Amino acid sequence: MTSADTPPRESGAGDPPSILSKAFDLLRAFNPYARVMTLSELARASGLPKSTVHRLLARLVELGVVEHHRGGYKIGLDMLQLCASTPAGYMRDLAMPYLTKLHRWCGHTVHMAVLRHYDVVYLEKLSVSESPTSITSVGARLPAHCTALGKALLAHENLDDLRDFLPRPLPALTPRSITGVEVLIDELRQVRADGVARECEEAQLGLACLAAPICMNGFAVGAISVGFPMEFAPPPNLAGALRATAAQIGSDVDAGLGGGRERWFPREI
C-alpha cells in the first residue's frame, strides 16, 4: 500500500490537544460567577500556561469572541450572537415575554432549561430580591431527576429506554433526592399524565419547584418552572399557569422554527 492509499489517521485521546481544543478550554473557564476574568485567572481555571492563554486571548479578541473589560476579559458580543442563533437560544428569546409575564404574576423565581444527556442546563433565570441563595444560574447544569424541570423533560422520553440508561443508584443532591430508578419512573408516568412536574427540596433544601414542558409535536424540547421557598404556599392555579405558558412558548417555537422537532432538537437520551 502506497502512502496515497493510507487512510488519514483519526485524532484520538492520545493526541496532544489542538489549538481549537485549547481555545474551548479557555472559553469554558468563563461561567455565570466569573463573567470577567484576568489572564492569570483564566490560566488557573483552564489549566493552560499563561503564555498560551496570552496568545489565545489575542487571537480571540481579534475575532470578537472575547473582549477586553476593565483590566480583564469577557465573552464577546460576536460569541453571544452566535449562541443566540442556536435553536435553544432562539427558543429562549421567544420565551422571554412569556417568562417575564409569568414572573410578574407569581412573584417567584422563574427558570427555563433544556435537557442535555442526563442533566438540565439552565437557559434563563428571573429572580426575586427576597429569594434565598440558589444553586441555579444561567448555564448551570444539575442532574435532571433532582429538578422539576428535569422531570418534566424526562417524562416525555421513552421510559423503558430511560430505565436502562439511568445510573443506579441515582446521584442525590439532598437527602430528599430520588435515588431509586423505579421510584423515578413511577413519578415520571404521573408527570406525563398531569402535564406538570414537582419537586420539594430534592435539588436544594428549603426550596420547592413546579415545572411544565415546552413541546413541539408532542415532544418536550425545553421546560419552564417556578421555584419558591418551602415556607410560602405556591400561587393559586400555578400548575395551570405553567401549562398555559409552556403551551404558548411551544406554539411560537414550532411556528418560528418549522421543519419538525427532530431537525432542531434531536433527542439527548
Class from helix and strand fractions: alpha+beta
Strand content: 15-25%
- Main beta-sheet annotation: 6 strands, antiparallel
Which word captures the global form? globular
Counted beta strands: 9
The top-level CATH class of the largest domain is: Alpha Beta
Compute the number of helices: 10
N-to-C series of helices and strands? HEHHEEHHEEEHHHEEEHH
Q: Superfamily at the CATH H level of the largest domain? A: GAF domain
The rounded distance between the terminal residues' Cα atoms is: 42 Å
Q: Based on the structure given, which CATH architecture of the largest domain is correct?
A: 2-Layer Sandwich
| Side-by-side strand order of the widest sheet | 6-5-4-9-8-7
CATH fold description of the largest domain: Beta-Lactamase
Q: Gyration radius, to the nearest Å?
A: 21 Å
In which range does the helix fraction lie? 40-55%
Q: What's the rounded overall pLDDT mean?
A: 88
Low-confidence stretches: 1-13
Number of domains: 2
GO molecular function, one term: DNA binding
Keywords: DNA-binding, Transcription, Transcription regulation
Protein name: Transcriptional regulator KdgR
GO biological process, one term: negative regulation of DNA-templated transcription
